[in-house]
Amino acid sequence: MQITLETKPFAALETDALVSYVFEETDPVQGRIAEIDQAAAGLLRKLAKSGELTGKTLEFTLVHAPAGLKAARLLLVGAGKREQFNGATLRKITGAALRYLKARAVKNFALLVREGEATGETAQIIAEGALLSNFESDKYKTDKKNDKNIETVLVAGYSDSERSAGDKGLSKGRIIADAQNFTRDLVNEPSNKLTPRILAEKAEAMAKEAGLSVQILDEKKIADLKMGALLSVAQGSVEPPRVIVVTYNPANAKPGAPVIGLVGKAVTLDTGGISIKPAEGMEKMKYDMAGGATMLGVMRALAALKPAVKVICVVPSTENMPGSKAQKPGDIQTAMSGKTIEVLNTDAEGRLILADGITYTKQLGATHLIDAATLTGAIVIALANINVGVFGSDQAFTDKLIASSKAAGEKMWQMPIDDDYREFIKGSFADIQNISSGKGGGAITGAMFIKEFTGDSPWIHLDIAGTAWNDDAKPWLAKGPTGVALRTLVHLVTSY
Ligand code: BES
Ligand code: ZN
Ligand code: ZN
Fold first, then answer.
1. CA distances, 258 to each of 23, 315, 329, 484 (Å)
2. Distance of alpha carbon 95 from alpha carbon 134, whole angstroms
3. 347 alpha carbon to ligand 1 midpoint, in Å?
4. Known catalytic residues?
5. Does pTM top 0.90 for this prediction?
6. In this predicted model, what pLDDT tens digit does every residue of 44-83 receive, in sequence order?
7. Is 430 helix (H, G, I), strand (E, B) or coil?
8. Closest C-alpha among 377, 400, 404, 406 to residue 464
9. How far is the CA of 306 from the centre of ligand 1 (A)?
10. Which protein residue's CA is at the shortest distance from atom 17 of ligand 1?
11. Which atom, in ligand 1's list, is nearest to the CA of 445?
């Protein structure tokens, strides 16, 4: 799909559909919408009067062969109240318009931005909205409905002097959305098509293409490093584990500047192990590698955006299987850090592999740590599928991430991890245990466990169990992986 900036006047655009967005206000026919109304001989004012055009969020008004316009159709999308309008809404509107038109076999459209909105940021958001909404989870379908494809999106409403900022925005949006779709592609892969070894191969190929350095640790190297927590999960499967290390090390990184460590959970299928999960919905646990896929996607974007900060990405990957050699409830394991862990539930495996992932990332020189993981069902209870759960040991660092999440249009909510919760993971027979003995606070327990391995380094944990997978298609998004947290992390790193 091509996305290009167009500076021609909107009435002259020969396109399948001219698209713009309408605010919900006393008179929705204002600014650019009033300009369209004028070109189309008062058509929009008529629609507004009859109540067909109100600007209510995601209201669609489609007009065929609009008089006064070269476009074959005019599509107006409701954008809600002007005061509440923001980048997240624009991204959704763009995506919803694309999917609406794609379903009607439209091949190309022009999105006309509103008055005063022709900026680089707007262009970036439109590129993101278009590319993310165009993603389909249909790789393994033999009938791909190839007749329904958007080929070109024009971003209109820019003047010649606004072109350079707009073009820059489009290219940034493309980089970020392509990376997010790369992540979503990985997450969609079922576990027979994406074992830890295959994930490592794909990460290696991505890194080489992007110009990043990459190292894959195999089971022997993992054993040499004494990653006992990761190995304890992996021992239940015939598929060997891998640790993927991708590094972005720009020449212009300042000496003494923070080195960011990104650690992503990549369990290619989580059956629960011996503490096995119920059959219903187990297939969905192929997305238990979304944290790792997100971090790999972040690295892909960073390679193209080239911020002046060093980033080390570590992705521990394994299956969690109940094979005959699987670890059993009550087993005591020694993590790479030397801490001993009583494994009370083999289904709380994400925190085990992250423990060693984090120890290794610190050893490689990271000063600031961020992990992303589909860690707990409990975060779904706490925040549903709306907000990512954020846990942070350093409030300034956490505030920075939350500011980035707002800028990137991804909802995140901070959760507590004060010392009172340390009780939950205190071990009876080992240093720590991997689940709480009591009830409640499951997502916090997971975070407290990981925190044990972070030492004094500022650290953020993102629990994306509720937000990495979209169970029902949305007007702007296909069913399946969302690629959540990628844009926030890219924003955070590039803001250093
Ligand atoms: N991968 C799961 C968490 C999960 C649940 C992800 C739902 C996505 C959707 C994780 O490994 C797990 O099984 N966690 C257990 C922890 C429990 C045993 C303390 C859980 O949440 O039930
Ligand atoms: Zn599990
Ligand atoms: Zn898991």
1. 43, 20, 39, 24
2. 8
3. 7
4. 277, 351
5. yes
6. 999 999 999 999 999 999 999 999 999 999 999 999 999 9
7. coil
8. 377
9. 35
10. 348
11. 19
